[in-house]
Amino acid sequence: MYIHRCRFVEYTPTAINALAFTPLSTQPLLACGRANGEIEIWNPTQRWNLEKIIPGAKNTSVEALTWVHRTIIKESDSCYSQTKEEQEEFLKTLLNKPPRLFSASSNGLITEWDTTLLRSKSSTNSHGGTVWCMSTNHANTLLAVGCDDGGLRIFDIIDDGLILIKNLMRNDAKVMALAWDNEDKFIVSGSSDSNIIKWDIHNARIMQRMTVDMKHGKDNIVWSIKILKDGTIVSGDSLGHVCFWDGNHGTMLQKFKAHNADVLCLASNKEGTMVFSSGVDRKCNLFRIADYFTTQSSNDDFNENHWVLVGFRRTHLHDVKAMALREDLNDKFFVSGGVDTSILVSYFDGFPEDKLQRLPFIPNKPLISISKSKKLLMYRSYNQIKMWRLGNAKLPDSWKLEQIPNLDLIEPQQAILEMTLKGNYHLTASALSEDGEWIAVSDIETVKIFKVQNDPSNPDRICVKKVKFPKILVNGSSAGAHHLMFTLDGKKLVIVNIDSSIIITELDDNQHKEIKILHQFYEHAQPLDGNTSVITSIAVSGDSRWLAVGDLLNRINVYNLETFKLHSTLPKFSSTNTSLAFYPSKPTLVITLSSNEFFLYDIESQKLDDWSLTYSKSLPKTFLNLENRLVGCTFNPINSDAIILWGANYLCLIDFDKCRKEKGHQPHLATCTGWRENSKYKAIEQAPKQNGLTKKRKRDKTEKNIKRVKTDKKIINFQLVFRYRSLMCVDFIEPNTMIVVERPFAAILENLPPSFYKAQYGS
Fold first, then answer.
1. Over 17-45, what HEC string results?
2. Are the C-beta atoms of 151 and 125 separated by less than 8 Å?
3. 533 touches 115 (CB < 8 A)
4. Domains present along the chain, CATH in parentheses
5. CA distance linking residue 439 with residue 431, whole number of Å
6. Could you report the per-residue pLDDT of 386-406, keeping only the tens digit for each?
7. pTM value?
C-alpha cells in the first residue's frame, strides 16, 4: 500500500490567553480563549472532546473568560415578592438554563457568546480600553473587569446583557488581575504599578493598599491575584514572587521566590489549602498549607497557617499564561495553557508525579478537502484557502514493503491556488467538490461559492470565479455555515447553517450565475424536544443518495437526497458522536464516538448491522482506553471488509473478515509485522508459556508501531499504528493509495519565539 505523507500544510494554532471552567452548578465545560480571538469549548466528561470552536474576529484577542450560571433570586426579579412556590419554580428555571459565556478582548469589548449559533449575542464597551482581567462574584450576579486605563468596572448581569453600575477609578496604572472575596463584599486588584488594592464594593472606596517589592525603583507588575476561603490573599508578580497576605490587615505573611521570571497565573482549590503558580519560566509550583506550631510561644493554643512549596514540574515548553481548576465529586484536575498552544490536563491529587495529558491542538472540524479524481488537496486557514496538486507516490523497494508505516512516500507537491478572503471573522467551513470544479467557503456571516477555472496566463495554476449565492438570514441577521459538503456527483452542496438547519443547493455546470436552493431540513434546528444543539458531523454516501447528520445531543438523522425526506433516526448513543462516514460500496454508516466506541448502521434496514450487534459493545479495552478520541474514518476501496479509524496520533485498521469467536480459553495477544501491499495482514502468534516463561520470536522493528489487541470473549483484528502525530486528514485517493496529512507538534514550536532560559552554573 502506498502512503502520501504530507507536511506542507502550515496550520499553526495561537497562544492560549485564558482558561475557565463552568460553575459547579452546571455540567463541566472548559472554555479556552486564544490570541487570535477564537474560543474553544471542551467537554471533560466526553474524554476531553473538543465540542465547539467559536470563530474569532480579525485583529482581536481573548484576554479573559468567565462563565455565569445564576443560582439565586435577585430583588430585581419579578418573582422576588411572590409566593415561595413561584420563587422555587423560577429558581428551577434558572438552574435548568445553560451557563452564559463572557469574554473580554484587546479591543475593549465585553462579549456574551451564543454557544449554539457560535457567534456574538451582545457586546458592551468597557470604556477603559483593553480589558486585562474579568471575574464574576460567587453569586453569579455581578461581573467585574479591570481595564487598561486603571479603572475597575462593575456590571450587573441581566438576562439580555450587562448594565454598568459602578466605575472605580484610581490612577492610570493598568488593572492586570482581580478577585472577589467569598462573601462578595470586596474585590482585590493587582496593578502594573506594584500595588494591590482592596476595594469596598458597596461604598466604592479603597479599603487597603499593599505594595509588592520593586527592583531598582522600577514597578513590579502584579499579574495574578487569588483570595482563599479563609480570606488569605495570594499574589504573583513580575519578579517571580508568590506572596501570601493577611486579608484583614493587609500585611504580608509569607513570600516565596518561587520562579525565575514573571508569575502569570495562579489557581487554588475550593478549601484554600492548595495553590498552583506558573508563568514565564514554565515551572508549575504547588504550595500546600500546613499547621505551624511555635513551641516558644507562651500561648499553648497558638497556631497559624503556614505555606510550604511541596513540589514543581515543568510541563510546558513556553510561557504558561492561564490555569483553571475543577473539583467534582469524582475528578479533581487542573488545566494549563500558554504560548506553546496546547492544553495540559493534570490530576492534582497526585501532583507532581501523576501522568499529564496533552490535548490535541488539531480541531475536530476538518480543515482539509480532497478531490480524489483530480488529486487535489485544499487547506483552510483562518482567512485563506490554499490548494496543492498531489504528486505520485513512490514505489518502495520490495524489501521495504513490510516497513511502509516508517517510510516517507511523497514527491514534492505543486501549489496551484492561494486565495485570501475578505470578511470580519475567521473562516468556519470549506469544501472542494470531487471533480475539482467547485469551492465553497463560509464564515459565520456569509457563504461563498466559487467556480474553478484554468488560469489562461499560467497552465500550472488555477483561478476562481465567484458565483452568486442567496443570502441566508437567522434572527434577522446574515448567517453563514458550520459545515459544507458536496455530494460526490458534484450536483449538490449541503450547507449546515449556524442555526442547525440544513440547506440543499443545486449546482449547474452550464448556468452557474446563481446557486439554486432545492430544500431545507429543520429537524435539528427545530427539534420536538425544543433543545437545539450544534451539528458536529455530516457525511454523504458515495452514490449521493444519503445524507447523515449528527449533533452534540447525539441526534443522528439520515436524509434521502432524492426525495428530500427524513429517512431514519438512529438510536441515541451514550457518548458524543465525533464523525460519520458511509461505506463506499454499500449503504452502511459508520459512527465514531468520543468514548472510542464505533457502530455500523444499515441504512436500508434502519438498524445496527450484525457486526455491531455482536462486537460493538465488546471492543478491546486497549483500544477504548487510548488517550485521544476517534475523529475520523476512511476505507480502502479495494477491501470492503475493513475500515481505518484514526485519532490525533494513531491509525487503527479493523478487518471484519478476521473477527472470530474464541471458545474454551482466553484469547491470546498477537502482533502484526506490517502493512502489506494487498492490505491483508500477517500476524505472529504469541507462543504458549513453558515453565512460566514465554518463548520470544524474532519480531520486525515495526512492532513498536503496530499492535493487535484483544477483547475478553472475542478476537477482533485491530491493528494500531502510532507512527504519525497530530493527524489532520487520513483518506484513500485510490485503491491501496492513502494520503496522511500531519502537523507535528515540533513544527508548531519552531514558529514560536525563544522561551525563557536561565543559564546554570558551569554550563
1. EEEEECCCCCCCCEEEEECCCCEEEEEHH
2. no
3. no
4. 15-358 (2.130.10.10)
5. 6
6. 999 887 665 555 434 444 444
7. 0.89
